[in-house]
Specification:
Chain A: Its cofactor is [3Fe-4S] cluster. The complex is a heterotrimer of chains A (83), B (410) and C (464). Chain A has 83 residues and is of the alpha+beta class. Chain A contains 2 helices and 4 strands; from the N terminus they run E-H-E-E-H-E. Chain A is globular, with a radius of gyration of 12 Å. The longest helix of chain C has 18 residues. Classes of the chains: A alpha+beta (83), B alpha+beta (410), C alpha/beta (464).
C-alpha cells in the first residue's frame, strides 16, 4: 500500500506510532518517520492510525496504481475542508 | 433567556441528557461573556485556535479573581497539580516522563500489544451476561473494563477497586461546576479524597520500588531517562491523574457509544457485519458524544482577541469542545451521527499540548468494547431513553444504561 | 478545440498537458478530475518513475529503513491520464500550443501546467563531479545510489553544504554510525534559512551528535585516485580530508532551461506567475492558458510585500497545484488566489524543526517559548514591527499560533505574556542572517478565512 503524511500538518501527537508501530515511528519526541510503502498486511493498522490522527495528516492510497479503477475507502482526508 | 446564563443552563442537571440545543444557542456568540465573568468559547475554529495559544494557561494559580468572584481555595500543598493542570516547561517534562513507559519513542508497542488482552477482557465481561436478559452496560461492562485495563497498565491491584472507586468519584464530582453542595465543602471533600488516594498510591509506589513489575508505576520509580526521574510526589500526582482519567472518561465513551448505537440500529447492524467500522465509528462518537464535554480550566495570561471579542488577562475561559464538534461552520450536517464521516477532525480528545494522554488506549478500548457488544448481544433494546445521567457536566455520560437483549452470540 | 469557446466545452473535451510528474503535477491532475475535468490529460515526466515523495529520501531511505523506490505517492483518486514518463520536455511552442519532447515527439494542449520542479545543483567541476563517490541527493535514483554506498560503510563522508538536505544527510550518517564531516561556507548550518541565532543551535545539535562540523570554509577541490574513485577533499583553509564519499548539498536549480526562447518569463529563478498561477510572458503580460505550480513557480505573495516567492516546500507544491488546477478549469470570478503561508519541516538529529512565514525577511528574532539551550523552543521573527516568520524545535503544537500571528500581521516584538517565556525571551536580538537584502516597505495586508476556498486578502492601514 502507499501512504504519505503531510508533515506540515503533523504536530507530533504520535497517535499513529501508538496504533501502527510497524509503520510509524517517532524519531525523538516529535519527529515522525514512516514507511510510505507499507506492506499490504499492515493496511488495517494504517487505517487505524489515519483515523486517529488529530490533524488528519495521513493520506492513504485511494487507488492502487495508475489506470486502475477507483476503490472507495472510508477513511480519507477531504481535499477542501481541512486547512 | 440571556446568553449570559447559558453556561449555567448547560451545567444544570436538567440539561444533561441533551445539552446540544443549548450549545447551538451558545454558538450564536462564539465568545460569550457569562454573568459570572467566565468566557465561554463555543465555535470550532476559535476553540482550536485557543488550544494552540500559548497565552492560555492551564495552571489555575494564574487565575485573577473577577469583581465579586471567590476563587477556589489553594490545593493541597502536599499534593501539587498533575501535568494536566500545569504549563510548560513543567508540563512538558512530566508528560515526557509519563510517556516513557507508555508510548513512543521509548515504549512504542505497549498499547498496540495490549490489544489481545483487551479483547479477552471484553469477551470475558460479555460472557458474564450469560443467563440474563437485561444488563446495565455501565455497571456490568463499561465501568469494569477500563478499570481492569488501567489497573493492569499502572500496576494497581484490581482487588483494591472498591477502595479507590469512592475516592475517584469524589474527586471527579469536584470537577462539577454546579454542585449541590457549596464550592468550599466540595473542594474540602475532594481534597481529602485526593489525599487519601495519594496515600494509598504512595504505599503502592513503595512496593513497586522494592519489587518492580512490568507496569507503569514500576517504570516511573525505577526508570532514568534524559529528563531524569519523577520526584516521589510527582509519581503520585501522575498516578492519581492516570488512574482517574483512565477510568472516569473511557466509561463514558463506551456507554455513550452503546447508547448512540442503540439509537441508530442501522449502524449497529453494520458494525455487527463489519467490525472494521469500529475505527471510524469511534472517531465519530468522539465528535458526536465526546466524553469530555468542555475544558473549564484555562486562564488568559494576556488580553486575547478572539473573533472580535477581547478576553481580558486573568479571565477564566471555558472551551466548549462538544459544541465545537457540532459547529456547522466546520462539520457538514453536524447533528447527524455518521460513522463514515470524512474530514472528521474532531475535538473529542482536545488538541495542543494537553491532547488526551491516554487517547490511543481509549480508542482501542472503545473499538473493542463496541465491536464485542454489537457482535454478541442479540436483539438489544434500550430499556430507558434517555437513560439516567451522571451529575457531572464535564465528564458527561449515563449513570446507568439498562439494555435488554434476546440472547448472546458465542 | 478552441479555448475562446465556452469553459464548459473545455471542461468536457479540452486537452490539458502537465509537464512534471512529481508531487505538484500529480496533485494538480487529481484536482482537475476531482473538479470535473473530463477532457484528455497527459502527464510528462523526465524520470522513469511514477510520482514519488522526496522528503523520505534524505531520512528513512538514507537510514536504510525504506527502499529508495518505496516512496511512490498515494493517489487521491484515479486520474485517467496518458503518462509519458522517462522523457523530458525540451521545448514549448506558445503559438502552436505544443510541448516538444526529448524523443522528438510533440504534444498539443489547450492549457498547460508547468510543474518541472528543481534538480540538485551539481558540483561545479565536471571531472570532479564524475568521481566515483561523489553524490547529489534529489531523485530516488540518487538516494538508491547513496544508500548503497553508505551501507558499504565508507570511512568518512563529506557533506558539502549545511542546508536542510546536507544536515539531514549528516544526521542519517551519524545514526548509521558513520564518520561525517560537514563543510559549510556560512557561519553555521541552516543559517541561510533560519539565521545565525537558530543556526547556532543547529551547530550544537550537529556537534553533540558527533559531526565534524566546519563552518566558514569551502571545499576547493575533490581529488580522485587513478581509478577515478574519490579519495580526498581540499579545503579553503589549506587542509585536506581523506574521504571516500562526498555528498554535494549546494541547493537546487530550477528546471526552466526547456522554456528558453519560448517567450515565457522563465529563468534561473523560476517561472514567474500571478497569484492565480498563470504564467507571465517575457513582457510581464499574464498568459491565460499556461499555469505554473510547485518548486519551479515564482509568485507574488501579498503577506510578504507582493514579492515573488519561489518556495521549495512540499506544502506549497500541494497547495499551489490545487489552486492552479482549480483555476485552469474556472472562469475569472471563480478563480482563487494562492495564499499559502510558507511552511516547512525538517527532521534531523532526533529533532523536529518547523517553520512558518519567511524567516530570511526577519530583522530580529525573539525566543517566545522554551529555550535555545534545551533545543526545545519557539521563536518569532520580526520585520518592520510585525511578525513575519517563526521557527520551532520540538514545539510543533504551537506553530499554528505563530502562523495566525503572521497572517494577521501581529506586532513584533510580541506584546503579550505567554507560558514558558524564559529570561532569554524578554527582548529580541538580531536574527543574524548573512545577507539581509530586504525591501524597506510594503503594504500591510492580512489574510482571512479558514479554508483554502474562502481565503482572502484584507488590506489594513500601514502602521506608522
Amino acid at each position: 500500500m502507499r501512504l504519505v503524511v503531510d508533515l506540515n500538518r503533523c504536530q507530533g501527537y504520535a497517535q499513529c506510532a501508538f496504533l501502527a508501530p510497524d509503520v510509524f515511528t517517532m524519531h525523538g519526541e516529535e519527529a515522525l518517520m514512516y514507511d510510505p510503502g507499507a506492506d499490504e498486511t499492515r493496511r488495517e493498522q494504517v487505517m487505524r492510525a489515519a483515523a486517529a490522527c488529530p490533524v488528519q495528516a495521513i493520506l492513504i492510497d485511494q487507488v492502487d496504481a495508475p489506470g486502475t479503477p477507483e476503490r472507495p475507502i472510508a477513511l480519507e482526508r477531504a481535499g477542501t475542508d481541512g486547512r | 433567556m440571556t446568553s449570559g446564563t447559558l453556561l449555567h443552563q448547560i451545567t444544570d442537571y436538567a440539561s444533561r441528557a441533551d445539552p446540544y440545543p443549548l450549545y447551538a444557542e451558545l454558538r450564536r456568540t462564539p465568545v460569550s461573556r457569562q454573568d459570572d465573568g467566565v468566557y465561554a468559547v463555543s465555535t470550532y475554529w476559535e476553540i482550536v485556535s485557543l488550544l494552540r495559544d500559548p497565552r492560555l494557561s492551564s495552571d489555575v494559580r494564574n487565575r485573577v479573581a473577577q469583581p465579586g468572584e471567590v476563587l477556589p481555595p489553594e490545593e493541597d500543598p502536599a499534593l501539587p497539580p498533575s501535568f494536566l493542570r500545569l504549563d510548560p516547561p513543567e508540563h512538558d517534562r512530566l508528560r515526557r516522563l509519563a510517556t516513557r513507559p507508555f508510548g513512543p519513542p521509548h515504549c512504542p508497542r505497549r498499547v498496540h500489544d495490549m490489544g489481545g488482552e483487551l479483547a479477552r477482557m471484553v469477551s470475558g465481561l460479555v460472557d458474564g451476561f450469560q443467563g440474563k436478559d437485561q444488563v446495565d452496560i455501565v455497571e456490568d461492562f463499561a465501568y469494569p473494563f477500563p478499570v481492569m485495563v488501567i489497573c493492569k497498565l499502572l500496576g494497581v491491584p484490581h482487588q483494591d477497586e472498591a477502595r479507590f472507586h469512592g475516592w475517584a468519584e469524589t474527586i471527579v464530582a469536584a470537577l462539577d461546576p454546579n454542585p449541590a453542595e457549596g464550592p468550599a465543602e466540595r473542594q474540602r471533600v475532594a481534597q481529602q479524597a485526593r489525599s487519601e488516594l495519594g496515600a494509598y498510591l504512595a504505599g503502592l509506589v513503595a512496593e513497586h520500588r522494592r519489587a518492580p513489575g512490568d507496569d507503569m508505576l514500576s517504570a516511573l520509580v525505577t526508570d532514568h531517562g534524559p529528563d531524569g526521574r519523577m520526584s516521589p510526589v510527582e509519581v503520585i500526582t501522575t498516578a492519581v491523574l492516570l488512574l482517574i482519567a483512565g477510568h472516569e472518561t473511557t466509561v463514558n465513551l463506551i456507554t455513550n457509544g452503546m447508547l448512540t448505537l442503540l439509537r441508530h440500529p442501522e449502524v449497529l447492524k453494520r458494525l455487527r457485519a463489519d467490525p472494521d467500522l469500529a475505527v471510524p465509528l469511534v472517531e465519530e462518537l468522539l465528535r458526536y458524544e465526546p466524553p469530555v464535554q468542555l475544558l473549564p480550566q484555562r486562564t488568559a495570561l494576556a488580553d486575547i482577541d478572539v473573533a472580535g471579542t477581547v478576553i481580558p488577562a486573568g479571565s477564566s475561559i471555558w472551551l466548549m469542545l462538544a459544541s465545537g464538534n457540532r459547529d456547522p461552520r466546520r462539520f457538514r450536517d453536524p447533528d447527524r451521527f455518521d460513522p463514515l464521516r470524512r474530514d472528521n477532525e474532531h475535538l473529542g480528545f482536545g488538541n495542543g499540548i494537553h491532547y488526551c494522554f491516554g487517547a490511543p488506549l481509549a480508542r482501542l478500548e472503545a473499538q473493542l468494547a463496541l465491536t464485542e457488544l454489537a457482535r454478541r448481544l442479540e436483539d438489544p433494546r434500550l430499556v430507558e431513553d434517555p437513560p439516567p445521567y451522571r451529575q457531572n457536566p464535564v465528564l458527561r455520560g449515563p449513570r446507568h444504561l439498562p439494555v435488554a437483549f434476546g440472547g448472546l452470540a458465542g | 478545440m478552441a479555448v475562446d469557446g465556452s469553459d464548459k466545452a473545455f471542461r468536457r473535451h479540452g486537452r490539458v498537458v502537465v509537464v512534471g510528474a512529481s508531487l505538484a503535477g500529480l496533485r494538480a491532475a487529481e484536482t482537475l478530475r476531482e473538479e470535473g475535468f473530463t477532457g484528455s490529460l497527459t502527464m510528462i515526466g523526465d524520470e522513469p518513475h511514477e510520482p514519488y515523495d522526496r522528503p523520505p529520501l534524505s531520512k528513512q531511505v538514507l537510514l536504510g529503513r525504506v527502499p529508495a523506490d518505496g516512496t511512490a505517492l498515494p493517489r487521491r483518486r484515479a486520474i485517467d491520464a496518458e503518462w509519458r514518463l522517462g522523457v523530458a520536455a525540451t521545448g514549448l511552442d506558445l503559438t502552436g500550443k505544443r510541448v516538444r519532447l526529448a524523443d522528438g515527439q510533440e504534444v498539443g494542449f489547450d492549457r498547460l501546467l508547468i510543474a518541472t520542479g528543481t534538480r540538485a545543483r551539481p558540483w561545479p567541476r565536471d571531472a570532479e563531479a564524475d568521481l566515483d563517490g561523489v553524490f547529489v541527493l534529489r531523485t530516488s535514483d540518487d538516494a538508491a545510489r547513496l544508500n548503497r554506498r553508505l551501507a558499504a560503510r565508507p570511512r568518512r563522508v563529506l557533506v558539502v553544504g549545511a542546508g536542510f538536505t546536507g544536515s539531514e544527510v549528516a544526521s542519517a550518517c551519524r545514526e548509521r554510525g558513520l564518520e561525517v564531516t560537514v563543510a559549510e561556507r556560512g557561519p553555521a548550518p541552516l543559517v541561510g534559512a533560519l539565521g545565525g541565532v537558530v543556526g547556532a543551535v543547529a551547530a550544537e545539535l550537529q556537534r553533540e551528535h558527533g559531526v565534524d562540523l566546519r563552518c566558514c570554509i569551502t571545499v576547493t577541490a575533490l581529488e580522485g585516485d587513478p581509478a577515478g574513485r574519490l579519495r580526498r577533499a581540499h579545503l579553503s583553509d589549506g587542509g585536506t580530508l581523506d574521504v571516500d564519499v562526498a555528498v554535494i548539498a549546494l541547493g537546487a536549480m530550477r528546471n526552466t532551461e526547456w522554456l528558453a526562447g519560448s517567450g515565457l518569463g522563465a529563468g534561473p529563478r523560476g517561472v514567474a506567475c500571478d497569484a492565480g498561477c498563470r504564467a507571465f510572458d517575457v513582457h510581464g503580460i499574464v498568459t491565460d492558458d499556461i499555469f505554473v505550480a510547485g518548486d519551479v513557480a515564482r509568485s507574488p505573495h501579498p503577506l510578504f510585500g507582493y514579492q515573488f516567492l519561489s518556495l521549495e516546500h512540499w506544502g506549497n507544491a500541494v497547495a499551489q497545484a490545487e489552486v492552479a488546477a482549480h483555476n485552469m478549469i474556472s472562469r475569472g470570478p471563480d478563480r482563487r488566489p494562492h495564499l499559502w503561508v510558507p511552511a516547512f519541516w525538517s527532521a534531523q538529529f532526533g529533532v523536529n524543526i518547523k517553520s512558518v512565514g519567511v524567516p530570511p525577511m526577519g530583522e530580529e528574532i525573539i525566543v517566545t517559548q522554551g529555550s535555545l539551550a534545551e533545543h526545545r523552543f519557539a521563536a518569532a521573527y520580526g520585520f518592520q514591527g510585525r511578525v513575519i516568520a517563526a521557527v520551532t524545535f520540538d514545539h510543533a503544537r504551537w506553530i499554528d499560533f505563530y502562523r495566525e500571528r503572521i497572517e494577521s500581521a501581529a506586532p513584533f516584538p510580541p506584546d503579550f505574556t505567554n507560558v514558558d517565556r524564559r529570561p532569554e525571551g524578554l527582548r529580541p536580538v538580531g536574527a543574524d542572517f548573512p545577507d539581509p537584502a530586504l525591501p524597506t516597505h510594503g503594504p500591510t495586508v492580512t489574510l482571512s478565512g479558514y479554508s483554502p476556498s474562502d481565503r482572502r486578502v484584507v488590506f489594513t492601514p500601514a502602521r506608522a
